[in-house]
């Protein structure tokens, strides 16, 4: 039960962080809409958004017609769950490799 709670907590943190980065990126892009090129911060935020939305949103692995409007949070949370599972598995593997049993 503890593992599931940890994975869900990581997923929620990922979801919130993804939404915050997306909102900041939107503000930076709209503030520089008349510029010929985005500033470094804008480009960095766009790259960070692409990484955080990977794999579900990057490959459009969800049918958009089933998630209209605010229901897009469902595939976004599934994306965050995938990230949470990956982060948790990597954490467990690193812990097993570097922590010597006594």
Q: Your description of this structure?
A:
The structure is a single chain. With 102 residues, this protein is an all-alpha fold. 69% of the residues lie in helices and 0% in strands. It has three helices and no strands. The protein has helices at residues 2-31, 40-53, 73-98. α1 runs antiparallel to α2 and α1 packs across α3 (73-98). The radius of gyration is 17 Å and the shape is globular. The mean pLDDT is 86.
List keywords for this structure.
mainly alpha, 3 helices, 102 residues, globular, single chain
By secondary-structure content and strand pairing, the structural class works out as mainly alpha
Mean pLDDT: 86
N→C terminal distance: 26 Å
Global shape? globular
> What are the segments in which pLDDT stays under 50 over at least 5 consecutive residues?
none
Strand content: under 5%
Radius of gyration (Å): 17 Å
Please write the string of helix (H) and strand (E) elements: HHH
Mind describing the biggest β-sheet?
Answer: none
The tally of beta strands, per DSSP, is: 0
* Helix content, binned percent: 55-70%
Count of alpha/pi helices:
3
């Amino acid at each position: 039960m503890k593992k599931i709670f940890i994975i869900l907590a990581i997923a929620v943190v990922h979801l919130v962080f993804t939404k915050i980065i997306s909102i900041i990126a939107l503000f930076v892009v709209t503030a520089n809409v008349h510029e010929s090129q985005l500033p470094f911060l804008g480009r960095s935020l766009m790259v960070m958004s692409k990484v955080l939305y990977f794999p579900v949103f990057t490959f459009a692995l969800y049918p958009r017609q089933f998630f209209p409007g605010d229901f897009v949070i469902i595939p976004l949370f599934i994306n965050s769950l995938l990230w949470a599972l990956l982060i948790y598995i990597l954490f467990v593997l690193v812990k097993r490799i570097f922590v010597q049993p006594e």
